[in-house]
C-alpha cells in the first residue's frame, strides 16, 4: 500500500462508536487528512451523532459531515422501526443468524455516500470500521463483501475508469476481536468516554447495557483488562 502524502485525504465513516473512532484515529496516525462522514438515517440511537461530533473534533477531522437519509422510511430493522432490540443475548446466540438490528443495505448505502464524497475530494481512500469476528452476524461486515464493493467502486468512478486513481477501502479492524480493538484504541489515545455504542439508549442517552452492542463492548473491555470510562 502506498504511504499517504502530506496532502492525502481519506473519507472516514464515523458512527460515534468505538470501532469507527478507532478507525479515524488510525487514519490520522497514518498521516491522512480525515473527512468524517456520519449518517442521520432515522436510527433510534440518534444520540450516536453527538458522539461522532465529539470524536471528529477530538481527532482534528478536516470536516465532519452528517448526511441525512431516511432509512426509517423502509423500516425492517430494530434500529429504524418499532421492533424490539434484542437484549441479554449470549455471545453464542449472537454468533447465529442475522439479528433484527441489521439495517438492510446500510453499509452499501453508507459506502456509496463515502465514495461520492471521495470522488469530489479527489481522495482514493475510505476507512470503515467493519469487523468480521465480533460483528453480530451482519452480512455487510464480511471480507468478501468489502472486496466485492471495492471492485465495483473502481468500475463505477471516473477516476477508476480513466486510470488516474484506484480506490482503496481500508478495514483495519476487520480481523480483530473486540478486546484487540479496545487495546488498539487505547494505544491510539481514543477517548473512550466520548464514544457511544448502545443500540437502545435511554431518554438521557445512557447506554442500556444489555443490547448486543453494549454486551460486545463490555466483553471487549473485560478481556482487554481495561476500564470503559
Write the layout of secondary structure elements.
Blueprint: E1 9-13, H1 18-29, E2 33-40, H2 48-58, E3 63-68, H3 91-94, H4 106-121, E4 125-127, H5 143-156, H6 158-162, E5 168-170, H7 178-188, H8 212-224
Helix pairs in contact: 1-7, 7-8
Summarize the structure.
By secondary structure, the chain is an alpha/beta fold. The protein has one domain: Rossmann fold (3-Layer(aba) Sandwich).
What does this structure look like?
With 229 residues, the protein is α/β, with parallel strands linked by helices. 38% of the residues lie in helices and 11% in strands. Helix 1 packs across helix 7. The mean pLDDT is 92.
Mean pLDDT: 92
Q: What's the structural domain tally? A: 1
Q: Give the tally of β-strands.
A: 5
Using the CA coordinates, give the radius of gyration.
Answer: 17 Å
Characteristic terms for this protein:
38% helix, five-stranded parallel sheet, 8 helices, 11% strand, Rossmann fold, 229 residues
